[in-house]
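Sequence in, structure out. Go.
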Amino acid sequence: MPRGRIYGVRGRIDGVRSMICGLLAVILPTLVIAHPHSAASQTMLSCAGRSDVVSFLDRNFGEKLTAVGLVNQNAVLEVYAAKSGTWTLVITDVHGISCILLSGDSWDSMPALPGIAT
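Output:
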């Protein structure tokens, strides 16, 4: 009986992860395609050393690291958000170079899902 319950929680966690990955797979390309500027300007990202980017976001917007996820073996996706609601999506490579991908307003954190340790 306990084994089935653990499998059920693991199945829900995998389902949530799959749903989040699916949403990101649809949302991120859509945002890049819907960007109102030319293709040349879309390739120009704001990049610097990770510590410089983190300092900039904290100093100018009060944004702190809110969420993180592994993109692949070479990159990490980070979300920085502030109590004011501003947020920034940053990708950092294995060499410590961070690039700001997107930013916006009205960030809202969701409560933790039941059964998922935080």
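Check: Residues 68 and 78 are 4 Å apart (CA to CA). The chain has three helices and five strands.
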